[in-house]
Design goal:
Elements lengths: L4 E3 L2 E3 L6 E6 L2 E10 L3 H20 L2 H17 L1 H12 L3 H23 L4 E2 L7 E9 L2 E5 L7 H12 L3 E5 L5 H13 L7 E3 L4 H10 L3 E7 L2 H13 L3 E5 L4 E5 L5 H13 L9 E7 H16 L19 H17 L2 E4 L18 E4 L6 H4 L6 E7 L2 H9 L3 E2 L1 E5 L3 H10 L4 E4 L15 E2 L2 E2 L13 E9 L4
Parallel strand pairs: 7-8, 7-10, 8-9, 10-11, 12-13, 12-18, 13-16, 15-16, 18-19
Antiparallel strand pairs: 1-2, 3-4, 5-6, 6-22, 11-21, 14-15, 17-20
Helix pairs in contact: 1-7, 2-4, 2-6, 3-4, 3-6, 4-5, 9-10
The structure holds nicotinamide-adenine-dinucleotide.
Length: 484
């Protein structure tokens, strides 16, 4: 049976005739669902429903909106395990990672519900006697939420919560690789009794549904997470229609290991953040830039650590790393493995699709390390988005920072050192949105903004106290209360 679209408070048949099968990336023979290839008409119905629902939703007080969002959160909390299993089924990540995703979604939603209750304004002394003035925030209207497959619950949850708390309505397009997670999320809104039209979801290709959600005059803002290439295209279209954009995009995150570092901690950090979700987190570590005196020790210990990792079906509790999310990802990452060897990097572990049962049934590439990677190589510059770590040598601290900054991206970075002065200098000199000292490149908390610089991010970043800012407009009121 073909799954449906969620428009105006109901699951309805897609206008589009075309369908596609989604397959479990750990067992490609297993079809997990048949989904519509939604079209312009589906998108248009969703946007019209959202536009019609806006007046009612914005007129509720923030406290009433928060009551409804709390119900969604309670349902999410009750269904943690079910949601985690759907994430693993569609994305392939381990159940442990999926449970962590549900947990961080709950935390981020909780924080943004609170932020929605704290949206305030300000007042200042005015130039005229008998005049009071204040500035406040008002909602924008219909918001497009366009999500990737790597955090299929967390990203839309992090975007939709502040958008809705600010009084906007939402049209949501999940990635085609994770439509079931999108559906499970929207089911929570439905069961919580969110009014019809406030949240709508259309499954379909980015080139049709995504494009419609980006260029329509019904839409006031697009919050997008995905690749830099698609983000750029969205911004081109949206900006010419005066639609604001928030773009969270790719990364090429470096861990910098200085000679005085706790090597064991650095190895653990690199191994965790390079291979979590098979290297498909935007904040994954994809480069290790290591000062020469500790390069050999770091590499050897890392290889030992990585060889202990078990690759397999994410639904098996003993698995450390699951498959890549689908055959396209498999093809892209395989191509980078070829490129790395061709460019002269030394492959020291992994590097080939795993064969034999049960691996040949899924999209499995083992944790891979290239050493002798130099800054101009493609594997040092481009986002691979797979379980591939490039180890690079730096002569000293200055060269390490130069290498770390020498990429088009600027999402996240980490330095391992015991030298406070070096650590603080690194924080100043590294061009990223998230910088860490002696911590994973992937670490984040809901109370702080999340976003990158350079090709990694554009617009007001998500989360933290800027979470609601993007989804609201300023309004100033001048009130004459006495003639003088
Ligand atoms: P993607 O760019 O291929 O797709 C993202 C979403 O955009 C999908 O829903 C897709 O259908 C849609 N889309 C595609 N073409 C479109 C178009 N023309 N108009 C509108 N929408 C369109 O990215 P992906 O492969 O799903 O996700 C992986 C990428 O996401 C990586 O580059 C990763 O770094 C990035 N990412 C970034 C962050 C962050 O916060 N910075 C977080 C997670 C993922």
């Amino acid at each position: 049976m073909v799954q449906k679209q969620y428009i105006n408070g109901a699951w309805v048949d897609s206008h589009a005739r075309g369908t596609y099968e989604h397959r479990n990336p750990a067992r490609l023979g297993e079809v997990t669902g048949v989904w519509p290839q939604g079209d312009d008409e589906d998108a248009s119905r969703a946007m019209n429903a959202a536009a019609a629902a806006f007046a009612g939703w914005r007129s509720l007080t923030a406290v009433r909106r928060a009551d409804q969002m709390q119900k969604v959160l309670r349902l999410m909390d009750e269904r943690r395990e079910e949601l985690a299993r759907i994430i693993t089924l569609e994305n392939g990540k381990t159940l442990k990672d999926s449970r962590a995703e549900v947990q961080s979604t709950c935390r981020e939603m909780e924080f943004q519900i609170g932020e929605g209750l704290r949206v305030g304004g300000e007042t200042k002394p005015t130039a005229q006697p008998g005049v009071f003035a204040y500035e406040t925030r008002v909602p924008l209207g219909v918001i497009s939420v366009i999500a990737p497959w790597n955090f299929p619950l967390n990203v839309p949850g992090r975007k939709m919560t502040p958008a809705l708390m600010a009084g906007n309505t939402v049209v949501f397009k999940p990635a085609s690789l994770t439509p079931g997670v999108g559906k499970a999320l929207v089911d929570l809104f439905h069961e919580a009794g969110i009014p019809p039209g406030v949240v709508n979801m259309v499954v379909g290709p980015g080139s049709t549904v995504g494009a419609a959600f980006t260029g329509s005059p019904l839409v006031k803002a697009v919050s997008f997470t995905g690749s830099t290439e698609v983000g750029r295209g969205i911004h081109r279209v949206a900006s010419s229609a005066m639609i604001r954009t928030q773009l969270e995009m790719g990364g090429k995150n470096a861990i910098v290991v200085l000679a005085d570092a706790d090597i064991e901690a650095a190895v653990e950090s690199a191994a965790t953040a390079a291979y979590a979700c098979a290297g498909q987190w935007c904040t994954c570590t994809s480069r290790a830039v290591v000062e020469k005196p500790v390069l050999e020790e770091f590499t050897e210990r890392l290889m030992d650590r990585v060889k202990q990792m078990k690759t397999g079906d994410g639904s098996d509790e003993s698995t450390d790393m699951g498959p890549l999310c689908g055959t396209e990802q498999l093809a892209t990452v395989s191509e980078y493995l070829r490129v790395g060897s061709q460019e002269g990097a030394r492959l020291v572990t992994g590097g080939e699709r795993l064969g034999g049962k049960p691996y040949d049934e899924g999209c499995f590439i083992p944790p891979t390390i290239f050493t002798k990677v130099t800054p101009r190589m493609r594997i040092a510059q481009e986002e691979i988005f797979g379980p591939v770590l490039s180890v690079m040598e730096a002569a000293d601290y200055d060269e390490a920072v130069r290498i770390a900054n020498d990429v088009p991206f600027g999402l996240s970075s980490s330095v391992y050192t015991r030298d406070l002065s070096r650590a603080m200098s690194f924080i100043e000199q590294i061009d990223v949105g998230l910088v860490h000292v002696n911590m994973l490149t992937a670490y984040k908390e809901p109370g702080f903004t999340f976003g990158g610089v350079k090709d990694s991010g554009f617009g007001i970043p998500e989360a933290g106290s800027s979470g609601i800012e993007f989804f609201s407009e300023h309004k100033v009121a001048y009130i004459r209360y006495r003639e003088e």
